[in-house]
Amino acid sequence: MSAPQLKLGLIDRVARYSRYLLLLPGFVLILLFLLIPLSMIITISFFERFTIAGPENFTLKNYIAFFTSPQTPVILLNTFGMSLLACLITFLLGYPMAYFLVFRVKSARARFFVVSLLLVPFLIDWSVRVVAWLPILGESGIVNYALMSLGVIKEPLELLFGRSALLIIWPQTYLLWMIFPSYLALTRIDPDIINAAKVLKAPPHRVFFDVTFRLSLPGVVMGFIFVFVSALGDYITPALWAGGIQTLGLSVANYAANFVWPYAAALSTILVAIALLILYLLLKVVDIKKLVY
Questions:
Q1: What contacts 60, CB < 8 A, 6 or more positions away?
Q2: I need a labelling partner for 169 at 20 to 30 A (CA). Which of 6, 56, 86, 100 fits?
């Protein structure tokens, strides 16, 4: 085979596998910073102790201790119950805003202005946004002052240092993660489909639920996943503003801070496993590919 033919063959082979080469940097990052650390966490969870020399004494007692603890139902309810409620509230707030942007705001400039307003809180440093909740939701904060001035309440509400704080702070923090996927899904709906339903004399609520909402469901589920996973992994908000109610994320942080690595690793593994199971069930309900292709 001549040199030009070898060169052409090499070029064809590179062109054939070039798309896989484009995936290589992302795959390396996922391997180094996700798969390898996760496999290490799972491995450590099956040992009694973890020292500089390595793990010692293979055991299942970390998992047995968790599932036999009387606090486990409370921790699971706090973790997944509050996360699901936060997702529901975020959906009730975010989906109407996405619907409004797509079907009611006709000007591209007006859409850009509204989206810019939504992004403003995220231009502020995270620590400042966390501290800002005290003058807003505290006993002497703006919300309680306004309600007492209007005569709605006589005594300040305890909005912070309880579960109610999570149901206020999490939806505000993760609202964009629900709005943007829903917005993307709504923009991909063919207007002719909606018009056809109207021409066929379908009632407005049937047009919305059977056409608009059903076709935008992949975006809703994607937003639900973003919010749910973010809330599951958040342990700082429960520690600061929810009175330290026990969640799996906060428990992991506490045990890790006290160098109880195997038990913290077991809790992390359980958290990831249950989250993956819930996400798998969600992805079985809708086809996320409809949001991409």
A1: 46
A2: 100
Would you say 163 and 82 are in contact if contact means Cβ atoms under 8 Å apart? yes
Q: Is residue 180 part of a domain?
A: yes
Residue 277 lies in a domain: yes
Which residue type is seen at 143? V
119 contact partners, CB below 8 Å, separation of at least 6: 176
> Which two structure tokens, joined as six digits, stand for 288?
């996320």
The alpha carbon dihedral of 139, 143, 145, 151 has a sign of negative
Q: Are 216 and 189 in contact (CB under 8 A)?
A: yes
Q: Measured between alpha carbons, how far apart are the two ends of the chain, in Å?
A: 43
Does a structural domain hold residue 4? Answer: no
Phi-psi region of 161 (alpha: psi -120 to 50; beta: other; left: phi over 0): left
Residues spanned by the domain of 85: 45-292
Convert the pLDDT of each residue in 74-128 to its tens digit.
888 888 888 889 899 999 999 999 998 888 887 778 888 888 888 877 777 777 7
Structure tokens of 242?
Answer: 């929810």
Report the CATH number that the domain containing residue 262 is assigned in CATH: 1.10.3720.10
